[in-house]
Design a protein that fits this description.
Order of helices and strands: EEEEHEEEEHHEHEHEHEHEHEHHEH
Shape: globular
Number of helices: 11
Largest sheet: 7 strands, mixed
Strand content: 25-35%
Helix content: 25-40%
Number of strands: 15
Structural class: alpha/beta
Length: 335
C-alpha cells in the first residue's frame, strides 16, 4: 500500500528505529491517540511475554496505506484507541516465550501484527514470524509481507497466472502495484501493462519491469489497453482502484480473463455488470490477503515463505521509496 493521502498511490515509505536504542525498561512507540491527528512518540514499559509470544527489536516497519486509513478511522476494521500503527516489520529476536521453539534470541525475522509495529519493540505470536536469510537485508524484509504477499496470492493462487500471459495492474506505482509487476515479470514470466494516474508513476512502473504503461488520467483505460494488445484483451487484471477504473479494466479482459479485486484506493466501489462476465466467460474474484491468515494459514505461510525465497534468490527486489526515523511519524501519518 502507499504512504499518501487517502485516495492516492505513491511510493512506499518506511519507519526506521533509532540506532542504539535497546530493550531497557522503556521503549518508544508511535501512538495514535486521536483520529486524524499527528501521532505522538511516547515511551512505554515492556510487558511480560505470554508462552507463545516473541519480543522483537524492530529495525524497520512498513508504512502502509492501511495504517493511514486506521489513523483516519477509515479502515474496514476500527480498533479502539489509543493504538500503535504498523502491520509489518523486521528486526531481531530479543526474547521468546516458554512455548516458542521456532525462533531464538538473535534471529533475524520479519513479522506481522494486528498493529503495534511502529515501535522500537514489538510483541507478536511466534506463528507470525518468518526467519530472514542473511542475503536479504532487514530493510528489504520489511517490504515483503503485505505488498508481496498480496501480489503472490493474487497472481498465483487467485488468478492462476501463466507464463506468457498479459497482466494489467492498476495503481501500478503503489507498493502493491510495484510488487505485482515484480512477481508477474520476474517470477511468473508474464507480460505486464502498468496503469497509473500520472506520467511520473508510469515511468517508475516501467523502470521496475512493466513492459508498457497507461496513464489513465489522460483518457480511456480500455482504449489505451486495446491499442497495446489489440481486440483480444488482457488475461489478468489486478485491480486496486475501484470505480470507473475497475469497470474499464473489466472491459479490457480477454476471453476467460480473470480480474482480482484487491482494494479501492480511488474511494469508490463499482457495481459489477454481470453481463460482461457472461459474454466472455470472465471470472471476477476478490483478495482480502490478511483473511487467509485466519482461514487458511498453511497457504498464507507457504506463500510468504516463497516470497522470502524469491528475494533470497534475487528474483525479486522490493522498492523502498523512502526511510523515516520513528519521530517523523508525527507528521507523516496524517497526510
Amino acid at each position: 500500500m502507499a504512504t499518501a493521502a487517502w485516495g492516492r498511490c505513491l511510493s512506499r515509505a518506511w519507519l526506521c528505529r533509532r540506532a542504539g536504542q535497546g530493550g531497557g525498561r522503556h521503549y518508544r512507540v508511535a501512538l495514535c491517540a486521536e483520529l486524524k491527528q499527528p501521532l505522538a512518540v511516547e515511551e512505554v514499559t515492556p510487558r511480560p511475554l505470554r508462552p507463545h509470544e516473541v519480543r522483537v527489536d524492530v529495525h524497520f516497519c512498513g508504512v502502509n496505506f492501511a495504517d493511514i486509513l486506521v489513523c483516519r478511522g477509515q479502515y474496514q476494521e476500527r480498533p479502539q484507541l489509543p493504538i500503535i500503527p504498523g502491520m509489518e516489520f523486521s528486526g531481531t529476536v530479543l526474547e521468546t516465550g516458554t512455548d516458542v521453539s521456532s525462533v531464538k534470541e538473535g534471529d533475524r525475522v520479519l513479522g506481522l501484527s494486528n498493529l503495534n509495529g511502529m515501535a522500537e519493540e514489538c510483541i507478536t505470536d511466534h506463528k507470525t514470524l518468518w526467519q530472514v536469510p542473511e542475503r536479504v537485508s532487514l530493510r528489504e524484509a520489511a517490504a515483503l509481507p503485505i505488498s508481496y504477499g498480496t501480489a503472490a496470492l493474487a497472481l498465483e493462487h487467485r488468478a492462476r497466472t501463466q507464463p506468457g500471459e498479459t497482466v494489467l495492474v492498476t495503481a501500478a506505482a503503489g507498493a502493491t502495484g510495484l510488487a505485482v509487476i515484480d512477481v508477474a515479470t520476474n517470477v511468473l514470466q508474464a507480460k505486464v501493462i502498468a496503469a497509473a494516474g500520472s506520467d511520473e508513476k508510469c515511468k517508475l512502473a516501467v523502470q521496475r519491469g512493466a513492459q508498457s504503461s497507461v496513464n489513465y488520467s489522460q483518457g480511456s483505460l480500455k482504449e489505451a489497453v486495446g491499442k497495446l494488445v489489440g481486440s483480444g484483451g488482457v488475461n489478468v487484471v489486478i485491480e486496486t482502484v475501484g470505480g470507473d477504473i475497475f469497470l474499464e479494466a473489466l472491459r479490457s479482459l480477454a476471453w476467460e480473463g480473470r480480474i482480482v479485486v484487491v482494494g479501492f484506493a480511488g474511494g469508490n466501489i463499482a457495481s459489477l455488470p454481470t453481463n460482461l462476465l457472461l459474454l466472455k466467460n470472465i471470472s471476477a474474484m476478490g483478495l482480502y490477503w490478511s483473511r487467509y491468515r485466519d482461514r487458511n494459514f498453511p497457504l498464507f505461510s507457504r506463500s510468504l515463505s516463497s516470497i522470502i525465497q524469491y528475494c533470497q534468490e534475487g528474483r525479486i527486489q522490493p522498492h523502498v521509496g523512502a526511510v523515516f526515523k520513528l519521530e517523523e511519524a508525527r507528521s507523516r501519518m496524517v497526510h
